[in-house]
Amino acid sequence: MSKNSNVYLNFIDGAWVESKEGETFKVRNPADLDELIGRFQSSTERDVDNAVKAALTSQKQWDNLSGPERGKVLRKTASIMEGRKDELTETLTREEGKTISEAAGEVQRAIDIFYYYAEKARDLGGEIRSSTKKDRGLYTIKEPLGVVGVITPWNYPIAIPAWKMAPALAVGNTVVVKPASLAPNVCRKLVKFLDEAGMPDGVVNMVTGSGSVVGNTMINHEEIDAISFTGSRKVGESVYRKASESGMRVQTEMGGKNPILIMEDADIGRAVKMVKDGAFGVTGQACTATSRAIVHEDIYDEFVEELEKQASSIEVGPGLKDPDMGPQISEEELKVTMDYIEAGKEEGAELVCGGDVLERDEYSRGFFVEPTVFSEVKPDMKIAREEIFGPVVAVIEAEGYGEAVSIANDVDYGLSASIVTKDLSQAHNFVEDIDSGVVKVNEKTTGLELHVPFGGLKASSSETWREQGDAALDFYTISKTVYLNY
C-alpha cells in the first residue's frame, strides 16, 4: 500500500512498488458502488518485465531449498491466513460480492490448499524402476520448470490463485501472478501473507492491470516457462494459441454449460435443492454452476413447480448481510445476464420466476438480479447452449436417459455434470456416457475436492494438463530419467 491508503501497489522483488507510468484503476463494492475498495496499478510491459526478471533471478535460490524448507513457508502462509480468516472473508465479500458464508468457504479452501501443498513438498520425488541390467540403477527425478505466469479470474479471487500458486511454489518454481482487475485485493493480501511467511524476495511477484497489457506481456515473455490461465473461453483460447506459439507449457480452464440430469426415480425435493444450490450459489458466477436441468418427462411438471417455489424463496442482498445470494460483480456481467434472459423470452421459453433487475432501496447501489428459472426450454435455444455466468437455469424435458445424455452432450462445453438417480446401472452408464471432466452422481455440479484432478473437456479446457492434487505438481515439473551404471 502507498502513503495514500486507498492506493495499492504491485509486489516485485520483495517490495511494494508503483507502476512505472503511475496510472491506476478503481475497484468498487458490487453491492454498494459508493464504497471504493481501492485504486490498483494499471501496469505496463516494463512492470511485467521487472517482475519476470525478479522471478528469474530468484528461481535457483528457491529451488535449492529442500522440499520441506519450501513447505515450511507454505505452511506458515496457511497459518497466517487462518489467523486472519475473518479479514480475508470480508475483503472478498466487499470486492467480489459473495455472501459472507460463501466467501468464508472460499477462504478456507485457500487455507486448506496451502496446508495440503506444504505437506506435498515434503515427499516430492520421482520413481524407481527395475533395469534390464543388474548393475544399473534406473529412476526418475522431477525438476521445476522455472518461472510461471498465473492469470486468475474474479469469481474465485483467492481460491484459484491459491491452487495455482501453491503447487508451483512447492516444487521450486517462481511466480508472476496477474489477478483479475475486478477483484484484486484479496489476492494482494495473499501475496502479502506469503511475504510475511518468509518467502524470499522475487519468488512471488504480483502485477495488476489489464489483460491486454499485463496478460499479453506475460504470454509473450521469453523468460516465462509456463502459463496457467482460468477465465472466459474467448480469452482462454487466445491465451492457449499465443502461449503455444511461444513454446510455453500452458493450461487453460474456461467455461461450462453444466447439466444435471433428473431421472424419473429421483427424490424431487432433494433434486431441486441440488439444482437450486448449483445454479444460484455464488450468484451463478462459477464455471461449474448448474446451467441446465434436464428432467425426465414423468416428473417434469412437478419438478418445475418445486423449483419455482425454492428459487422464489431465495433472499437476495448485499453479501455482508449474508443473504442466500449476493450481486453480480459488475454492470457488464449484469447486462450479459439480462441479455440472455431476454433471449430466452424471445425464443419462446417460459419464464417461471425471476428475470428482473432489483433496483429499489438497498438494491439501488449494486448489481442485483433475481434468481431466474426458465421452463419449456428447447436444446437449440441460446440459453440452453451458451454460458450465461449468472443466476439463470434452463429446465429441459427429456423422454428418458438416452435423450437426456444426448442433450447434455450436445454443447461445446464439458466441465461438470451430474445425474440424480437411484438406479446404480444408470449411474455407472452416466459416468461412461457423459462428455465431462467432472462427473457427479446425486450431487450438485459445483463443489470440488482439492486433492483430485480438476479440468474440463471440449471448449471447457485446453485438455492438456489438469489442476489440483498431484496433477498440478505434474504441470509445474519436468521429469529426468537417470541411468546409473555402478
Order of strands in the sheet with most strands: 14-17-18-13-12-20-21
Tally of separate helices = 15
Give the second-level CATH assignment, the architecture of the largest domain.
3-Layer(aba) Sandwich
Overall 3D form: globular
Strand content: 15-25%
The whole-number mean of residue pLDDT values reads 96
- The beta-strand count equals 23
At the fourth level of CATH, the homologous superfamily of the largest domain is Aldehyde Dehydrogenase, Chain A, domain 1
Which range best describes the helical content: under 10%, 10-25%, 25-40%, 40-55%, 55-70% or over 70%? Answer: 25-40%
Query: Can you identify the CATH class of the largest domain?
Result: Alpha Beta
The radius of gyration is 23 Å
Low-confidence stretches: none
Structural class: alpha/beta
Q: Indicate how many domains the architecture comprises.
A: 2
